[in-house]
Description:
Layout: H1 5-10, E1 21-23, E2 29-32, E3 37-42, E4 45-46, E5 54-55
Antiparallel strand pairs: 1-2, 2-3, 3-4, 3-5
Amino acid sequence: MSLPSELLDILVCPKCKGSLEHHEGPPEVLICRSERLVFAVEEGIPIMLIEEATPLDENTFPPVIR
């Protein structure tokens, strides 16, 4: 289940208020590269709690070059 683009447009990192990268997965996650945090998306609901985020592993989620 992918997050609606309207929601992705307004979501920011709860720690730095910076932009998030959306990875559709699996697993579907939102990534803050500046804080190096990964936020899970469970059943279409982003879990935006800092204490629930996991550290970013660049091997699992390499930067997207556009």
